[in-house]
Amino acid sequence: MSTKPYNPADEGAEMSFRQKMSYTDYLRLDDVLKAQSPLSDAHDELLFIIQHQTSELWMKLAIHEIRSAMDAIRGDTPQPAFKMLTRVARIFEQLNNAWDVLRTMTPSEYTEFRNALGQSSGFQSYQYRAIEFLAGNRNTAMLGPHSHRPDLLASLEDILSRPSLYDEALLLLSRNGFDIGDEANRTNWRETRAENPKVMEAWRAVYAAPGKHWDLYELAEKLVDFEDYFRRWRFNHVTTVERVIGFKRGTGGTSGTHYLKKMLEVELFPELWRVRTVL
Ligand code: HEM
Ligand SMILES: N[C@@H](CC(=O)c1ccccc1NC=O)C(=O)O
């Protein structure tokens, strides 16, 4: 005895989208799902492509959130920035978990298609560079790989012409009466700023009396949280890279694992880490 299969149309599920916007239409899935073009017959190349494309989508959202957080801080309304920065940290947590999928690819499997990648490399990810530049890790040498794309170069240059997320936090400290020295009058934002003892002292005062400076205290902790998850991303990346290609040179031309280990030393918000020692 068979029962009739359940039909969601009986309770009103729409079944015809000839004249209406569907899920596939709204999400432009034809564009998204046609954008994977492996260059080899290797089974794992699709994993590699999807891993990177999904990472780039999450980075797009991170950039959107960081920019809005910066606007909120600049407008002296830091509260919405807290939520946005929490989301950025969660995005990095998501990216960190994604390494578990890529880690299932062995060196033997990667070697099957590595040649097809030519000299392309994550080193040329302009969204990754945008996140670093927005956060405050600025190095104009990193513009080089984008010199053939005036549109991308212009958007990175635009980021470098304005204060970073951390600069916005320091300017907020200054507007709240904290002495941050010459940094309050800075006009050139293109390079990473030098560490500043006055900024360290300002953060020390914030951490010494959280109740008195709650917004600045909460902002500082959101920034530390963001950097914490960012550091974990760098660490997961270099560990995966060592596991898959050892100490081979990178396709992008750097020393590979050695280069990435050096990048682990980068600090986005140095005084916020330094201040811990003196509390
Ligand atoms: C098997 C997987 C991977 C390997 C073997 C690998 C390898 C490398 C190497 C060797 C570099 C140094 C630059 C070079 O000379 O090429 C690099 C940089 C980079 N990779 Fe990967 N990578 C892998 C996966 C990923 C994934 C999934 C992402 C996510 C988007 C990514 C993003 C980046 C970025 C953003 C850089 C630049 C880092 C910086 O300049 O600090 N990589 N990668
Ligand atoms: N740099 C990697 C290649 C690589 O991982 C890659 C190549 C093209 C697009 C994204 C990549 N991912 C991260 O660098 C390698 O040396 O094997």
UniProtKB/TrEMBL annotation:
SUPFAM superfamilies: Indolic compounds 2,3-dioxygenase-like (SSF140959). InterPro entries: Trp/Indoleamine_2_3_dOase-like (IPR037217), Trp_2-3-dOase_bac (IPR017485), Trp_2_3_dOase (IPR004981). One of its GO terms (molecular function) is L-tryptophan 2,3-dioxygenase activity. Substrate binds at F48, I49, I50, Q51, H52, Y110, R114, T251. Keywords: Dioxygenase, Heme, Iron, Metal-binding, Oxidoreductase, Tryptophan catabolism. Homotetramer. This is Tryptophan 2,3-dioxygenase. It comes from Neorhizobium turbinariae.
